[in-house]
Design brief:
Elements lengths: L14 H9 L1 H16 L14 H7 L4 H8 L7 H5 L28 H40 L13 H4 L8 E9 L4 E9 L4 H6 L3 E3 L7 E4 H13 L4 H13 L17 H26 L3 H8 L2 H4 L17 E8 L4 E2 L18 H18 L7 H5 L9 H4 L2 E3 L1 E6 L5 E7 L7 H13 L6 E4 L3 H11 L9 E4 L2 H4 L4 H7 L18 H18 L15 H17 L5 H25 L6 H24 L4 H5 L5 H30 L9 H13 L1 H22 L14 H6 L18 H4 L1 H51 L20 H31 L20 H16 L3 H12 L7
Parallel strand pairs: 1-4, 5-10, 10-11
Antiparallel strand pairs: 1-2, 3-4, 5-8, 6-7, 8-9
Helix pairs in contact: 6-34, 9-11, 10-11, 11-32, 14-17, 20-22, 21-31, 22-31, 23-24, 23-26, 26-27, 26-28, 31-32, 32-34
Length: 927
């Protein structure tokens, strides 16, 4: 018995098969006609005379062998092909095959040019997208007002009436009115079902679906809808975990199929894919949430600063009541902003052809704002005659030089995103990067909008990877001179160590006042800082008991002495220019001379190569390096012999030591960058075992070059100290560096400072105790600033919570006062919710929404009270005494109970009719 053919019902035609089927559609029609004629028995065989060949085809076939074929054909008699082909009478000889004379590159229909077809398809997509956007815009106003009313009636779809049919409250048509039936798939947390809905033409279909507890995927003709509690669950999961749409939809489908109905696709060959419908529904749900928040903010008449406090971070943007110590002017009312770029978020130009109109969220900088900043920069450059110059810090930054991933950017329209966050990891503003790198207009556009949103008297600190370059850029072009005094720039702590030492002493937040422990990240470092505080306190306590050999008399080290030494060190560092071409050429000359000296020493000892070829290579290398050395000496403005005689001078040895230390420092920064994910796992960053093994493997592979750099550094330091002061070789800090010491060394270690390379004989350059004391003093200054910043942020948070609660209560009182008869149609809330035609229903809905928002805010304050009550009250002048919200609100609870009783007894039917009329409007819905 043969095997039965297994049929796979889930197999679909591939894309190429569909294209082939469409291309041969005409031929298939002709073949079907022939088959039908054969079945009916009325098909007439038409024999085609194949002897009549086109002259061109004959000439083409015989162009190379014409003489031989002609000679052969003369002796052969012709055969009648009609008799031969008649043997296969069932073959339809009159059907034209697809292999005709049309070349593949030629179009069968010359008028249908591919460019015209592509343009027509793009136009059709634009029209369809615009129609969909218009329909959605028309339906959203009615959907939003219905959403507000239904959310109140169902307690945000958490009560037993969440899935009751509230359509009769919105539709007042009689039973004889025209209705349309359509199938729709309803998906809930616990199951799914395909039902038949009856829609009335008096309102949008999405409103009727929402009246049953589901949100439709389309405003006009929805084919799927998802329950409000499912959408709420997805929203919370999306906020607190990494949830993607496709896996979530697939998980929900499998979970629902086990417990409810199986939803087939259109062809009944498999389950229906609802991921796109879920995506559209989630977008609509988020729009409703945003519209609800905008409604409350419009009702409260919030300013831009107040909106930042509500939606972003009250600790940074909230108002201040002046409580607390406020002893440090460097951080008084200071607001710190961090900027960074993510180049992992790209969009390929050919990834999608959707023509949906661009909608820029409020948190994003609008493209027009970015263009205005670019135009302003161009005007300032033209006004002050600025020429573009290379910036060393920007060129060393792989993202800031506009060359990172340049080949990838060519195929992408959106290449990344720039974001700004406060000290508490709350996103403030975002800017989309379109086709370029990290250009200056992006941070300036974000900064311009941020400065316009906060108070004009608040100083702002900006931490940015290229903060030094951006600061020089602004000063050179005199950008925003009215706000320049209150803006201070710094570099993110880790990126700061990549910059040169003169740049660090000016822009590293660990060395500058006003930054606290802000480092450009959101890591919770206060606990670690307090541990470091205790360690630095021990160091300072020991140093102030130690005699100071740098001052006359028998005095000990003092804090004032350490501060004066730091000021002198900063002055010397800022006076020193960056490494110029002369110093680089000198480094190259000394390195080459070391190689030449090694060759000469081998020749003097008689250590010749083993072969003649290797000897020739050595002689050739000596000759080429000698020519290069003479050219370098000429470029330095001196003679080769004279410069060669200075190779063992103090300056030359110091230059070689500086080069060795710079190379070793570069490796230290690289190793620290690779270890950063491992070191920050305690701060909430997740790191798997495989990734950790890869990181440790990369670190181990750098062991050989690190050991080589350490050996060279030790050798050159010994040579330099032996020349300058041999007694310093016995000091502990000048002992040979080991690999273990290198791994345990921090980037803030005094070894990495360029103290030895300023030709200074000051205590900060020679005395290790002074360097240790300076480091401890600077860190304790930052800890003190951090405590002051936290005190101010606590004050602003509590003040905002109390004032915002008072604002909500006063707004509720105003709405209730305006709702009393007679109602003024031109009251202060008349411009809100214009879709409501009757003022009474609008005021009632606004009051309900603000009360709901007040309840959420009071719950937030209760959660804060536990943390705040345990803090040091004296440090904020007993601000908690104002926190009386736990004992208040009794009248509001009684009012809510009365409203619930009215809704249960049905006394609010008149009000419902008023609201319903406002929802649909007096003229009925329009689609």
């Amino acid at each position: 018995m043969g095997r039965l053919l297994k049929v796979n019902p889930f197999k679909h035609e591939s894309r190429n098969e569909k294209k082939r089927k469409a291309r041969h559609a005409d031929r298939y029609v002709e073949e079907q006609k022939t088959l039908d004629a054969l079945k009916q028995g009325n098909y007439h065989v038409l024999i085609v005379d194949v002897d009549q060949q086109p002259p061109q085809a004959e000439s083409d076939n015989n162009y190379s062998y014409g003489h031989e074929q002609n000679s052969g054909d003369q002796s052969t008699s012709q055969v009648d092909t009609n008799d031969i082909l008649s043997a296969w009478g069932s073959i339809p000889w009159d059907v034209i095959s697809s292999s005709d004379d049309i070349q593949p590159s030629q179009s069968r229909y010359l008028l249908l040019d591919p460019s015209f077809i592509a343009a027509a398809q793009a136009r059709d997509r634009d029209i369809d997208a615009q129609i969909l956007a218009d329909n959605r815009k028309k339906a959203m106003s009615k959907l939003f007002t219905s959403y507000l009313w239904l959310r109140e009636k169902t307690s945000n779809w958490t009560s037993e009436s969440s899935f009751e049919d509230f359509s009769p409250r919105f539709c007042k048509c009689d039973k004889s009115a025209r209705r349309t039936s359509a199938w729709i798939d309803l998906v809930d947390l616990t199951g799914q079902q395909r039902v038949q809905f009856e829609y009335c033409d008096c309102m949008p279909r999405c409103v009727q679906v929402l009246a049953n507890g589901f949100l439709a995927s389309s405003p006009v003709e929805p084919s799927a809808a998802f329950s409000m509690r499912l959408l709420a669950y997805h929203n919370y999961a999306w906020h607190h975990s990494n949830v993607r749409m496709k896996p979530f939809a697939e998980t929900q489908r499998v979970f629902s199929e086990e417990r409810s109905e199986f939803l087939w696709n259109k062809n009944m060959t498999g389950p229906r894919d609802l991921s796109q419908c879920l995506t559209k529904t989630v977008w609509m749900y988020r729009d409703l949430l945003v519209m609800g928040l905008d409604l409350v903010q419009a009702t409260l008449r919030l300013t831009d600063t107040q909106k930042l406090a509500v939606g972003t971070c009250p600790a940074c943007s909230g108002p201040s009541s002046g409580t607390g110590l406020y002893q440090l002017p460097s951080v008084l009312h200071r607001l710190i902003l961090s900027l960074d770029v993510n180049f992992q978020l790209r969009h390929h130009k050919r990834a999608g052809r959707q023509s949906t109109p661009l909608v820029t969220p409020e948190i994003f900088v609008h493209p027009s704002e970015l263009e205005d900043v670019k135009e302003y920069i161009t005007q300032q450059e033209r006004l002050h005659k600025i020429t573009k110059k290379a910036d060393q810090c920007a060129d060393s930054h792989k993202a800031g030089n506009d060359n990172r991933n340049e080949t990838t950017w060519k195929a992408c329209d959106d290449t990344g995103i720039m974001g700004s966050c406060c000290r508490h990891d709350s996103v403030v503003f975002l800017a989309n990067i379109h086709g370029t790198g990290e250009n200056r207009a992006l941070p300036l556009a974000i900064l311009k909008r941020f400065l316009a949103s906060v108070g004009e008297d608040r100083p702002v600190g900006v931490l940015y990877d290229l903060g030094c370059s951006l600061d020089k850029y602004i000063d050179l072009r005199k950008i925003w001179p009215e706000s320049r005094d209150r803006v201070k720039f710094g570099t993110s702590v880790f990126h700061a160590y990549v910059h040169e030492w003169p740049c660090q002493v000016k822009y590293n937040p660990r060395y500058q006042q006003g930054w606290g422990l802000s480092d450009g990240t959101s890591k919770v470092i206060l606990g670690l800082a307090l541990i470091r505080r205790d360690l630095e306190k021990t160091v300072i306590s020991e140093l102030i008991q130690t005699p100071n050999p740098n001052t006359p008399g028998q005095s000990n080290y003092t804090i004032a002495f350490f501060r004066s030494q730091w000021e002198d060190q900063v002055r010397v560092a800022l006076e020193k220019n960056d490494t110029d071409d002369q110093q680089k050429k000198m480094n190259e000359f000394l390195d080459n001379e070391e190689v030449l000296e090694s060759y000469r020493a081998r020749m003097a000892r008689g250590e010749w190569p083993t072969t003649l070829a290797k000897s020739n290579e050595m002689f050739q290398a000596i000759e080429e390096r000698g020519k290069a050395q003479r050219a370098l000496a000429a470029s330095l403005g001196t003679d080769y012999a004279a410069l060669r005689g200075q190779c063992q001078s103090e300056l030359s040895l110091l230059t070689l030591l500086w080069k060795a230390k710079s190379d070793l420092y570069t490796l230290a920064v690289t190793v620290r960058a690779e270890k950063e994910p491992v070191m920050t796992t305690d701060a909430g960053n997740r790191l798997g075992t495989r990734l950790k093994e890869k990181i440790m493997g990369a670190i181990n592979r750098r062991k050989s070059p690190v050991e080589k750099a350490i050996k060279l550094f030790n050798e050159r330091r010994r040579n330099y100290l032996q020349k300058v002061d041999p007694s310093r070789l016995l000091l502990p800090e000048n002992q040979d560096l080991t690999l273990a010491d290198f791994k345990a060394m921090d980037l803030t270690d005094p070894l990495w400072n360029d103290n030895h390379f300023y030709h200074a004989r000051a205590p900060w350059a020679l005395d290790p105790n002074v360097r240790k004391g300076i480091k401890s003093v600077l860190f304790l200054d930052r800890v003190e600033e951090e405590v002051e910043l936290l005190t101010q942020e606590l004050d602003r948070s509590i003040t905002w919570a109390c004032e915002y609660r008072c604002s909500l209560q006063s707004t509720i009182a105003k709405i209730e006062l305006e709702a009393q008869e007679p109602i003024d149609p031109n009251n202060e809330f008349a411009d809100i919710l214009p879709s409501f035609t009757l003022m009474k229903g609008k005021l009632r809905l606004l009051c309900s929404e603000v009360k709901r928002h007040l309840g959420e805010h009071q719950r937030l304050m209760v959660t804060w009270s536990t943390d705040v009550s345990g803090s040091n009250k004296a440090s904020i002048d007993d601000t908690l005494e104002r926190q009386t919200f736990e004992d208040e609100g009794g009248d509001e609870e009684e009012e809510e109970e009365e409203e619930e009783e009215e809704s249960m007894t049905g006394d609010d039917d008149d009000n419902v009719e008023v609201i319903d009329e406002g929802v649909d409007g007096p003229e009925g819905p329009t689609e």
